[in-house]
Amino acid sequence: MELALITGVIIRVFRAVVLTNGDATSSYLVAALVLGTLFLLGMATLHLGRFPVREWPWRAPLFAIFETAGEMLVSLVLIGLHREPWGTARAEFTDWQPMATGVVFWRVLAVTVWALLLGGTVQFVRGRVLKDTGRDVDPQTLPDGQPFIERRKKDAF
User: Fold this and answer.
1) Which of the four pLDDT bands, split at 50, 70 and 90, describes residue 24?
2) Distance from C-alpha of 71 to C-alpha of 11, rounded to nearest angstrom
3) Contact 16, 84 (CB under 8 A)
4) Residues 111-128: what's their mean pLDDT?
5) Residue 84 and residue 23: Cα distance in Å, rounded?
6) Helix, strand, or coil here: 86?
7) Are 69 and 8 in contact (CB under 8 A)?
8) Which of 3, 27, 49, 63 is the most exposed place for a label (fewest CB within 10 A)?
9) C-alpha closest to that of 81 among 69, 93, 72, 70
10) Residue 65 contacts by C-beta under 8 Å, 6 or more apart in sequence?
């Protein structure tokens, strides 16, 4: 879960920098939102790619929760330094709980929907495209029926 915590820290610092040091034009804010979303979903993809697809339904929300924890810890520090933007003013400690609630809702929703779309795509490619090309999709299976994929390079001895 270190990857999720690091993602949360980077996203919160990025948000604070964007909202305090940039132009408040809509194109600037939309570009920052797109960049932040791509980073979040890219890191979630990197995390989920290390596990079988069948574990994604519980790993994706867990990633989002840990990412939110990282974000909210940075938020507490920024509030203590009077640097956390909240609307047109600076956030206070009483604003932290509503901020955390909103962040956890949107992160869990975004990462879970992304994991469902990504998992569906992976299953489609494995089930349809690879079978249609005649490639061997499932060369070996483990005792529980899960496909075994060798990711290590074989020695040339």
Assistant:
1) confident
2) 7
3) yes
4) 89
5) 17
6) strand
7) yes
8) 27
9) 93
10) 4, 104, 107, 108
